[in-house]
Each structure stands twice: as C-alpha cells, then as structure tokens.
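Morning, I've got a small favour to ask if you have a moment. I owe you a coffee for this, so here goes:
>
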Amino acid sequence: MTVAYDGTPFHGFATNPDVRTVQDDIECALATVLRQPTPTTCAGRTDRGVHARGQVMSFDVDAAHFDADALTRALNRMLSPHIAVRDVVEVASDFDARLSCVARSYRYHITNAPTPDPLLHNRAWHVRERLEVEPMQVAADRILGEHDFTSFSKRNKSKANETFVRRVEQVQWFRNGDAVHLDITANAFTHQMVRSLVGMFVAVGRGRRPATDIDVALGARDRAVVPTPAPPQGLVLMQARYRS
C-alpha cells in the first residue's frame, strides 16, 4: 500500500498509545474495513511533523476476500483529509515494506526569501538569508558513497550496538525562485540524518561553515560538531524503492 500524508497533526508515523500517529490511524481504519486487527510494516518511520508522498506499508490479509479498489476507496473515506491511500496491490507473501526496501528518497523544502510565506508554514523551512546553492552542492557531493553518519544521527538509547553506516546514492540541491530543495536517496537513513545534514548544508550556504566541514563532521563521529537539525516540516518521504 502506497500512502501519502500531511504529518502536521501527527506525533510521527510509528504507533504510540499516548498520542495520535499515522500508523495508528491507518491500522484503526484497516481493522474497521477488514473486521480484524491488521498490523502493518512501513518502509521508513517518519518523525513528528514530517510528511510523505510515497510511504509504503505492507500487511497480511485473506486473499480470497481481497479487493484492492474497494479497500482503497473505503480507507480514503475514513482517513481523509490528512492521509491518502494512493494504491493497494497484492504482493508475494515474503514481501516486507521495510526489509524488502533497497532505497529511500527524501526531499527537503526551504523557502529562501526575506519574509516567510504563511501558506508554507507547515511545508517548508523559512531561511531569510540568501543561500548560495553551489557551495551547498559541493558539501553534499562529499557524502556520496558509504560513510559513518554518527555525527548526523540521533542515538536510540535502547539499541546498544546501533550502527550509523549508510550508503548515499544521490544528493542534489536546486533552486527555483525563492524555493530551494534537496533531493537525497540512500539505502537507508538513521534517525534525524536528513534533517541534520540539511542543517549543516544550510550553514554552508549561509557562509558560516566551509564545505570541507562535512569531512570533519563525518570523521569526528560526534553530534556536538554539527549544527542543530533543520525543522521537520520541510521534509517529505518521496519514494521507497524495491527490486523488481
């Protein structure tokens, strides 16, 4: 199931009994339509305030009573306006939205203008100072390939042997008028990795850090050497990629 959502009213994607989450809303709707509890798995958990256009979720259902079109219509009636099911398809029984995923793509949106745009308040990070995209791209090129992103990752205290090595396949900054965007694809991302990288790239674009500071940060493996992560509302999970 491919899902899009506005992350503004949710406390992240992952189920949490104390607050509203994307996963809980979807699983509640699935249970109502399918008349049984239906646990789901996702391609990538998103934080509070982060959006998605191409989140992928997998779940088990009785194939004999499976009607993809009817399920899609029923879920969209229940989940609108903050969540939309873009499509539902039957897959092999060993498919897992997270474990079968070979790459994830995100886009980060920045409004780069002297004054903010109220209509983009929940969709982009407003940066008032003029950003120089060329040095931002020079810095971005330095993270291509496999690296240890410890400095750009929020640690999970419950995971003693957590690894932060990831492989970045593509990273591209581009400007369109007052809009500045980052597209980034990797085999996987650590917690807050994209937002932390954006925070560093923007410091470079503002002229506060040289592009080579990316190398210093990667080598330091210390979160204290990088700027504060960019705010969540500019981040969108665009696509999860699977082997054909």
